[in-house]
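For the sake of transparency, this paper describes our internal protein records without simplification. The remainder of this section carries one protein's record, kept here as part of the documentation:
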Amino acid sequence: MDGDGTIYTHNQNIASQEIIDSIISMLKKGLCFGLVTAAGYPGKAERYEERLELLLAAMYKEFVRPDGTCDDVLQRFFVLGGECNYFLRPYVEARKEAPGRLRLAFVPDADWKTDVLKEWDGDDITAMLDKTSKALAEATQRLQLPVDTIRKERAIGIIPREPTTVEVLEEVVLSVHYELNDSSIPFTAFNSKDDVWLDIGSKGHGIQCMRKLFGIASASQV
């Protein structure tokens, strides 16, 4: 399921007990549950833990035994970040001074990415982000939109410094699409009503990775 705007409010943490109970119910029934989000925090698993704090606490209470062991249910829960660039799974952290808890850990790319994703060259990604940076700068200057630019290893975005409209942000997105129409690497460019981002790849690519990893047929995917 999508994260921002679906199971929690955009840029907020999961808070709905009804949604948390539904996720736990699905896991109890033997289903795999994945949270697929555009949010990319390379090397910072704790940022994903913050967004899912209440869910992870509920899963620990429901599935982890007093001795810290659990069934394979935790292996059926995962988080995909940055559309399809980061894969995390939960693990039990034992603590002497406090009760245990569920944490999230990054899984090495070689263990889950499809051949298609592995073929995306680092130099090509850098060149694509450079081109996007230029397109964002030109579009925001043309629209007289003051922004802060944030660049990550596989994403780049702008955050307006003052209120603007969805139409203005969508114009920026269209400008990025126009500049990258000949790109050999798939990308996702979007406005969230508060900012504009470009991510390498797409959630569709991430879902394909998960289907292959878990051996799930397309007909069994919701």
In short: The chain has a mean pLDDT of 91. DSSP finds seven helices and eight strands in the chain. Residues 25 and 150 are 38 Å apart (CA to CA).
